[in-house]
Write a structure and sequence with these properties.
Layout lengths: L1 H32 L1 H35 L5 H5 L6 H14 L1 H22 L6 H23 L36 H16 L1 H12 L6 H31 L1
């Protein structure tokens, strides 16, 4: 399973690079020769943004599947697997995706890719330079996340379990037999609190990208504010929502 996850990360990173290159060249061509000359490049860049989101969706879905079926081929899954049963046990196993550092980075990257895809798809009709530069900035932020996940083994959620962790009958041995989700995290609020915050954090990538894009393009109008207003409100609301369950968890558990 680990190799399939790594392939997904590789595809996502390649798509990020392609989208950034196409959007950058397209923005330059649009400025010098007009929108018609740059249309193919700008379309290609936006397709790259969507492909990135699809690849990261595959990675997240793969991890959730491994958590649900109890797959022991991926170290991150074994280290964060909940042993609870019933409906809450299922919820805790799904939340294993974001309960550890490696999974949180992947989940955060996936959310950024979803927001970037919304921007890309909404801008297909106008292919505006401001949108293109904003997407470049947002994709560069995403490239940092995906690069860490792909090239840093300590931060990769797709490290395969070593054979030394298994007994002859396939059961876990040694310290690996004691691994699992921290019992302090097995609470409904910790299945809600982190993803709400991560949606907020990822959402604020868009207003940041538009602000930088306005500076780069020397656009003194309020267009960038109008374009990112909804994303800002969504992000702010989810950050506000996330505080409640976090407070409940801290009060009840800690």
């Amino acid at each position: 399973m680990a190799i399939f996850g790594l392939i997904g990360l590789l595809v996502a990173f390649a798509a990020v690079v392609v989208s950034v290159v196409c959007l950058l060249i397209g923005a330059v061509v649009e400025r010098r020769r007009g929108a018609d000359e740059a249309e193919t490049l700008l379309w290609g860049g936006r397709i790259g943004v969507v492909v990135t989101a699809v690849a990261l969706t595959w990675c997240c879905g793969l991890l959730i599947y491994c958590f649900l079926v109890g797959d022991q081929s991926i170290q991150y899954v074994v280290q964060n697997q909940s042993r609870q049963t019933g409906l809450l046990g299922t919820l805790y196993r799904i939340s294993g995706l974001w309960e550890g550092r490696e999974g949180s980075l992947l989940f955060w990257a996936w959310l950024i890719s979803i927001f970037n895809s919304v921007v890309a798809l909404r801008g297909l009709k106008r292919l505006d330079q401001l949108d293109s530069i904003a997407l470049v900035i947002a994709q560069l932020v995403l490239a940092g996340f995906v690069g860490i996940l792909l090239f840093s083994e300590d931060n990769s959620p797709f490290v395969a379990m070593a054979a030394s962790y298994f007994a002859a009958d396939g059961s876990l041995t040694g310290n690996a037999a004691l691994w699992g989700m921290n019992s302090l995290l097995e609470h409904w609020a910790m299945a809600v609190h982190p993803p709400a915050l991560f949606i907020g954090y990822a959402g604020f990538t868009i207003p940041f990208a538009y602000a930088i894009a306005a500076l780069i393009s020397n656009n003194s109008s309020d267009t960038w504010v109008v374009r990112c207003q909804r994303y800002t409100l969504v992000a702010w609301r989810f950050l506000s929502i996330g505080i409640g369950p976090g407070a409940v968890w801290a009060h009840v558990v800690l």
